[in-house]
Amino acid sequence: MSEKFKILLVEDDPNMGELVKDALIDNDFDVTLCLDGKEGLSTFIKGSFNICILDVMMPHMDGFTLAQRIKKLSPETPFMFLTAKNDMEDKMEGYEIGADDYLTKPFSVKELVMRINVISRRLQGNLATTAENSQFELGKLFFDYAKRELGVKNNMQKISSKEAELLKLFCVNPNKIVRREFLLKNVWGDDDYFSSKSMDVYISRLRKLLKSEPEVQIINIHGTGYRFLIPGSDAPFD
């Protein structure tokens, strides 16, 4: 992208916040720091951001609540959590909300920058996608990848960036076995344990979004990955 990648950083520890902000600025990001959830929400409403990086435990409004508010306002905006908690339940709650990533404190700035860059590259890829290869008919459903919308044509709803990325990979590989490793590398940037658990959450969400068209199915292929069945597709089975 021609202009700097804009980050909303919400972290209630001012020392930690300034350290992360300065490190990200040194890596050529445009960073706005807020010190609590209410300030973060107000700043998000007034501004324009490519990604939100949210602490979980904050005064006035915790990071999970803030993420839910942001998601309602802008479903396409990716967000990630920074937290001192390492409990699986907390991480899964974050992914259920729709988090793109999750880093546990203490973390290295190098790793944070790497994860932001994965999201940045995905967003750039979204912008480069043309309409002719980003619209798909799924039975009675219609999927517009570029707009991140899914539904019947007179009742479309916004879906998250990861939901859109996963669904497009399925749509361009109808009836074929798509390996878990392929999906993890292309959507999450790695295939570690937490990314794998996050993908399971998003696969479940996609199935719920597609349930009004029962002939469209994401089939588990045990120990390998998934097969995406689309009614009327003439793509051969592999």
How would you describe this structure to a colleague?
This protein has helices at 14-26, 37-46, 63-73, 88-97, 109-128, 161-171, 180-188, 193-210; strands at residues 6-10, 30-34, 51-55, 79-83, 101-104, 135-138, 141-144, 149-152, 155-158, 177-179, 217-221, 225-229. By secondary structure, the chain is an alpha/beta fold. The chain folds into two domains: 6-128, 3-Layer(aba) Sandwich (Rossmann fold), CATH 3.40.50; 131-229, Winged helix-like DNA-binding domain superfamily/Winged helix DNA-binding domain (Arc Repressor Mutant, subunit A), CATH 1.10.10.10. A five-stranded parallel β-sheet has the order 2-1-3-4-5, with helices on both faces. Strands 6-7-8-9 form a four-stranded antiparallel β-sheet, with no helix packed on it. Strands 10-12-11 form a three-stranded antiparallel β-sheet. Strand 8 and strand 9 form a beta hairpin. Helix 6 crosses helix 7 (180-188) and helix 6 packs across helix 8. The chain is globular, with a radius of gyration of 18 Å.
Short recap of the structure:
This protein is of the alpha/beta class and 238 residues long. Helices cover 43% and strands 22% of the residues. A five-stranded parallel β-sheet has the order 2-1-3-4-5, sandwiched between helices.
Instruction: Specify the CATH architecture of the largest domain.
Output: 3-Layer(aba) Sandwich
Give me the CATH fold name of the largest domain. Rossmann fold
Helix-residue proportion: 40-55%
Question: How many whole angstroms does the radius of gyration measure?
Answer: 18 Å
Q: How many beta-strand runs?
A: 12
Order of helices and strands: EHEHEHEHEHEEEEHEHHEE
* The CATH homologous superfamily of the largest domain: Response regulator
Q: Largest sheet, described in full?
A: 5 strands, parallel
Tally of discrete structural domains = 2
Instruction: Provide a count of the helices.
Output: 8
* Strands in their spatial order, largest beta sheet: 2-1-3-4-5
Shape: globular
